[in-house]
Amino acid sequence: MNELLQQVINGISLGSIYALIALGYTMIYGILRFINFAHGDVFMVGAFVGYYFAPIISKFFGGSPFANGLLVMAAAMIICAVLGVTIEKFAYKPLRSRPKLTVLITAIGMSLFLEFGGQLVFGPDPKLFPALMPSSAIVNTENLVISTNSLIVIITAFVLMILLRTIVYRTKIGAAMRAVSYNHYAASLMGININTVISFVFALGSSLAGAAAVLYSSVYPSINPLMGIFPGLKAFIAAVLGGIGNLYGAAIGGLIIGLVETFVTGYISSTYRDAISFSILILILLIKPSGIMGKFEAEKV
Amino acid sequence: MNRHRSKLVLLASLVAAGGLSFLQPYISPYYFQIIIYIGINIILASSLNLINGFAGQFSLGHAGFMAIGAYTASVITTAMNLQPGTTLAIPMFLLALLCGGLIASIFGLLVGIPSLRLKGDYLAITTLGFGEIIRVIIQNLDFLGAARGFTGIAKLADFFWVYAFVAVLIFLIYNLIHSTYGKGFMAVRDDEIASEAVGINVTHYKVVAFVTGAFFAGIAGGLYAHFVTYINPSQFGFLRSFEIVVMVVVGGMGSIGGVIVAAILLTILPEALRAIAQYRMVIYSLLLIIIMLARPQGLFGGGISIKRFLKQNPEQT
């Protein structure tokens, strides 16, 4: 029983990180109808920002570990947001009127560029992410360990998700985002600046990836330039599972993928961990391609 | 070039491959290895071109098919304990390669079926996932050597084998594309709904593209395994698939000659630029981005229909 509870907590902790990344995929898909393959690599950059900023921040600000942790996360979020907006401006914007395949190939190219450019800049070997907060166990019995770290991950992720919900549903720019995702042309006739909204969505999505990266690295501290590939793909699967384009779907999908993955690792074999997510993807695409909460869109001639 | 002449060209290139293979002792092993890799990459890129370029189904799982072919053929030749030079070696090696191709094409069918419902990004991710699933499964199969790899494969592939298959594949694709039947692939790529409306069996063409492409990727895998004599699952990861995609995109989707040139160039370039080997993938990725921004039909491609396919957004017409 305790072991089951342990797996559930680990799964929710991992799943809430996937959910944060998946939200970025789903928002960008919702507005531009394409999958930003480079999103997982923006996540990787976030982890390295945290790695380089953590010592600087603790040296110059020297606040409590909690405040330092928040500052590190803010730094990762800001730099990732800038990176996301830059990628969109240079690589995707010139292709906006082109077919999806062109954009897809560009996105794959951008993803490889960040991965291998990252290897050149950060070095190919794994680095140890500094512990932002001393982790202590709240509950520590025979086979159940609940650490403060996993609780902080879950709480931070949920706070960010609620914040995102507020931005999307309670602010003016959020209304503009929803309008653009319905119809670019009509939204622009209503006086919405499409380019600003798209940039904002990229900034928002990428900053969530940056935050997720800091959370992820504080749980799995070994970081390297290729680390974004699998969390990125799994978050994408989570977004599809939940129904791409749907914010709640991305959150639910992330939690499901995180839980399934933890259970497979815990009860079957860790070697099948990566294969199971892809199997889920293939199944969901065959059975219900629109996902759990998505709506079916018929193709128009 | 009519049907008859292309057959003559095929025959001539097969004879040439046989003749040139006698030059092998005079070439340094290093250059010989590059020449073999060029041939294998031409097979991989051209077969992917059939799926990506002609049928317009963007697939990222080609290394998976290659792995299936490589492992199947290796298991067969190792079980029969084939040794190079024996009389049995040639027909049995051919048989092993064909089996590898066949098993790969069965998997091609399995991937082709979901592709009937998916397109664009979803298909790309699904095929990528498929390739990863294959890799993970091989990694967990102990009789295939699991993560340690499969060792002791006889070195059966040589210049003749590789380039004979290059010639056969090019012959096949050329004639397929220029036949009335083959026009269907491009029709499906250019406008699926319109093709369906004029009675083209879209399902049939998509599946045929996947099955044929996978078959030759399997053959390429078998040739590769019997040249390097050692394979392990990490050789067939998705970066391998990306490399093949880069060859097709750089050469020009739907351009037979362009893809061959790109496969040659992109095999030689990394070798020529050994000193800056760590930049290889960065250069590949920049190539992808720049080509998509500036010349989406690829460096050497340029048919009108492929330009329209890559430059016009169907949603805006």
Q: Number of folding domains of chain B?
A: 1
Largest interface comes to:
A-B, 45 and 45 residues
SS field, number of helical segments of chain A: 11
Report the sheet-strand fraction of chain B. Answer: under 5%
State the major sheet of chain A. 2 strands, antiparallel
| Highest-level CATH class of chain A | Mainly Alpha
- CATH-derived architecture of chain A: Orthogonal Bundle
The low-confidence runs of chain A, each spanning 5 or more residues with pLDDT under 50, are none
Structural class of chain B: mainly alpha
Return the string of H and E elements of chain B: HHHHHHHHHHHHH
The value of Rg of chain B in angstroms is 19 Å
Task: Flag low-confidence runs of chain B.
Answer: none
Rg of chain A, Cα atoms, Å: 19 Å
N→C terminal distance of chain A: 55 Å
Overall structural class of chain A, as computed from helix and strand content, comes to mainly alpha
**What is the average per-residue confidence, as pLDDT of chain A, rounded to a whole number?**
88
User: Looking at the chains present, what oligomeric state does this protein adopt?
Assistant: heterodimer
- How many helical elements of chain B? 13
Shape of chain B: globular
- Number of E strands of chain B: 0
Question: How many strand segments of chain A?
Answer: 4
